C-alpha cells in the first residue's frame, strides 16, 4: 500500500474523517468492507477505469457520476458513497485511488470490529495469523499457490478463522491471501494490523518473552512504553523460549533487547573483538 504524500495524503485524511461518520451494524460494515475490496480488485484489473476515475480534466461531479453509473448496481449505497467521495478528490497517480479505496475497505472492517467491541481481538487475530503463516511452510504454500483457485484459498482462510476471530478479520485475511497487491501475505497482514492500531492512534510493539506475561505485567509494560513514546501501545506478545529470559521489544525501527540471550550475544561479540 502506498505511503501517501502531499495532495494524496490530504485526500486520505479527508476520507478517514468521512469514514468516522459512517454508521451501520457490524454486519453491514463487514459487507461494505468486502464491497470496497471488490472495487479494489476491479480497479487493479482495469487501468483504463482507474485513469477515467482520476482524470483531472473531468470535474469531480463527472467522476462521481461515472463511478455511480459503473458501480451503482454492484455495491450498496454505503459503499458507493465512500467510493464517490474518493473519486471526487485529486490523486496525482491513478494507483493512489486504488490504494485509498483499499485503505477505506480495511478501515471499514476495523470499524466493524470497533462496533462489536472487539478491536483488540482483530489486531491480535491479524498478528497471530501472520505469525502462523511464517511458522507453517505448508500453510504458506497453500495460501500463496496461484495454481489453487482463489475461492479455495479464501475458503481455507474462513475455515481457519471460524469462531476464532471477529467477523471483520476474515475479509482482511482473505484480501491479504487472494489479492495482496505486490506484498507478501505476511506484509499485507502486518499492514492491516498497523492500520487497525493507527485508527485509535496507537503504536504497535512486538514483545518476545521466554514465558507468557500476566495481565499485570502487560499493563506495566504498556504503561512504560506509553510514557516513553507518548502514545498508547498495543502489545503483540510472542512466547519464544530462545530468549532464555527477559524481554525483547520491537517498536518500529527501535529494538529494546533486555533478554538473557541478547546479553550473551553481546558478551560473545565483546570477547571476539
From TrEMBL:
It holds the Pfam family OSCP. InterPro entries: ATPase_OSCP/dsu. It is a peripheral membrane protein. GO terms for molecular function: proton-transporting ATP synthase activity, rotational mechanism. The keyword Iron does not apply. Its main location: membrane. One of its GO terms (cellular component) is proton-transporting ATP synthase complex. It comes from the Bacteria. Keywords: ATP synthesis, Cell membrane, CF(1), Hydrogen ion transport, Ion transport, Membrane, Transport. The keyword Glycoprotein does not apply. It is found in: Cell membrane; Membrane. This protein is part of the stalk that links CF(0) to CF(1). It either transmits conformational changes from CF(0) to CF(1) or is implicated in proton conduction. F(1)F(0) ATP synthase produces ATP from ADP in the presence of a proton or sodium gradient. F-type ATPases consist of two structural domains, F(1) containing the extramembraneous catalytic core and F(0) containing the membrane proton channel, linked together by a central stalk and a peripheral stalk. During catalysis, ATP synthesis in the catalytic domain of F(1) is coupled via a rotary mechanism of the central stalk subunits to proton translocation. Belongs to the ATPase delta chain family. HAMAP family: ATP_synth_delta_bact. This is ATP synthase subunit delta.
Amino acid at each position: 500500500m502506498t505511503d501517501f504524500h502531499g495532495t494524496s495524503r490530504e485526500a486520505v485524511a479527508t476520507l478517514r474523517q468521512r469514514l468516522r461518520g459512517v454508521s451501520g451494524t457490524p454486519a453491514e460494515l463487514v459487507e461494505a468492507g468486502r464491497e470496497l475490496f471488490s472495487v479494489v480488485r476491479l480497479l487493479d484489473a482495469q487501468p483504463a477505469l482507474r485513469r477515467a476515475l482520476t482524470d483531472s480534466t473531468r470535474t469531480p461531479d463527472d467522476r462521481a457520476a461515472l463511478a455511480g453509473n459503473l458501480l451503482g448496481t454492484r455495491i450498496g449505497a454505503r459503499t458507493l458513497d465512500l467510493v464517490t467521495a474518493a473519486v471526487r478528490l485529486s490523486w496525482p497517480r491513478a494507483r493512489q485511488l486504488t490504494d485509498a479505496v483499499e485503505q477505506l475497505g480495511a478501515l471499514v472492517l476495523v470499524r466493524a470490529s470497533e462496533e462489536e467491541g472487539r478491536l483488540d481481538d482483530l489486531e491480535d487475530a491479524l498478528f497471530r495469523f501472520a505469525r502462523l503463516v511464517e511458522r507453517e511452510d505448508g500453510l504458506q504454500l497453500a495460501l500463496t499457490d496461484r495454481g489453487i483457485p482463489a475461492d479455495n484459498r479464501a475458503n481455507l482462510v474462513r475455515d481457519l478463522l471460524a469462531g476464532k476471530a471477529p467477523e471483520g478479520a476474515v475479509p482482511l485475511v482473505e484480501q491479504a491471501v487472494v489479492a495482496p497487491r505486490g506484498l507478501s501475505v505476511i506484509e499485507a497482514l502486518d499492514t492491516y494490523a498497523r492500520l487497525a492500531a493507527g485508527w485509535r492512534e496507537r503504536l504497535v510493539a512486538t514483545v518476545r518473552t521466554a514465558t507468557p506475561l500476566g495481565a499485570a505485567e502487560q499493563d506495566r509494560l504498556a504503561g512504560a512504553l506509553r510514557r516513553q513514546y507518548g502514545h498508547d501501545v498495543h502489545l503483540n506478545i510472542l512466547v519464544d523460549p530462545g530468549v532464555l529470559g527477559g524481554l525483547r521489544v520491537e517498536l518500529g525501527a527501535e529494538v529494546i533487547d533486555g533478554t538473557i540471550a541478547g546479553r550473551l550475544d553481546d558478551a560473545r561479540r565483546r570477547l571476539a573483538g
